[in-house]
Amino acid sequence: MAAVLRALLVLQAAFALTATLGMVALMAFDPAYAVVPALAATALFALAALLPRRWALWTVLGLEGVALCGVWLQQVAALLPQLGSTVNLTALLTTIALPAVVLALTLRLLAAR
């Protein structure tokens, strides 16, 4: 189960790096927009490497909880007429399904300890 969780964290970090490249391309190739997403991807890679440690599991739990709360807040903000949100299969898989599965696996690993 830890190997699956590690693979999902690496996959999530790879998605974050791909999204970072797309964001930098859309923002006139300004590298300032890549700082925070690159740090988040680096943190996910580091957590995947340090996964057997208990504090790493708790950190993954916190990060995925924040990610899921962020999606919820984005959808609440999209209720305003000035803001909008596009919901498609890719967004559902990468922002809801993947963090939810990682969260569930992390909780299962913590319960097993």
From TrEMBL:
Keywords assigned: Membrane, Transmembrane, Transmembrane helix
Domain of life: Bacteria
TM helices/strands, residue ranges: 32-51, 58-77, 89-111
Protein name: Uncharacterized protein
